[in-house]
Amino acid sequence: MLKVLAKEFHGFLNSLIAYIVIGVFLTGIGSLMWIFPETSVLDYGYADMDTLFSFGPYVFIFLIPAITMRSFAEERKAGTMELLFTKPLTDWDIILGKFFASFLLVVVAVIPTLIYYYSIRQLGNPVGNIDMPGVMGSYIGLILLGSVFCSVGIFASSITPNQIVAFMVAAFLCFILFSGFNSIASLQWLASNALLVKQFGILYHYDAMSKGLIDSRDLIYFLSVVFIMLSVTKLILGSRQW
């Protein structure tokens, strides 16, 4: 697994994709937090990072599929899938290697936002007047959300040799998983079961963690979705029907 992880991660670093993803994420979030008046921390006067944690998931919906779309789709299109599976690696080694490589890139993209945290902390009145548990919970939630989106992207890439199709499928599934269930729960005929429906979506658990409450049920939810998506990917690759 580590060999696949290293190969994939080096592949990201040797192409423009890693730098584009990190640059777009930091530039987009930075602009929202510091420049645009509707969302700028400097304009609304509160020392918090709600802009990052509110808009970050929607940025991830498009950026993470761009990272993962080539994972298996490129291998299938280039005809190197058979060669990959002839190596002394299990299906799980390959899947987990590709998953952790994309997940590591997401973590690398998030780490520089700690500069935003430090800046806002210094701007607080008094200095340090920021909801630390809420920020920590939100960061954990954002990282876990990124792991789910990576697993969805890996799955989407395994079902088609076309990278554009893989991107579109992954982006659609990420959107549905993140906020689709909340929209479904608002339907009139589901009013009596609205809370139950919301609990199937990421947004419910993400919002809970952003309050600084790290509940084991939320952690289990994120890890379960990752496991399910990667397990389905394993079934698809195990069928060897390419």
Provide a descriptive summary of the structure in words.
By secondary structure, the chain is mainly α. Helices cover 76% and strands 0% of the residues. It has 13 helices and no strands. The chain has helices at residues 2-13, 16-34, 41-44, 50-68, 73-78, 81-85, 91-110, 114-123, 132-158, 163-185, 194-198, 202-210, 216-239. Helix 2 runs parallel beside helix 7 (91-110) and helix 4 (50-68) packs antiparallel against helix 10. The longest helix is centred in the middle third of the chain and has 27 residues, at 132-158. The chain is globular.
Following the backbone from N to C, one meets helices and strands in this order, namely HHHHHHHHHHHHH
Largest sheet: none
Shape: globular
In DSSP terms (H or I, runs of 4 or more residues), the helix count works out at: 13
Distance between the termini: 22 Å
| Structural class computed from helices and strand pairing | mainly alpha
How many beta-strand segments? 0
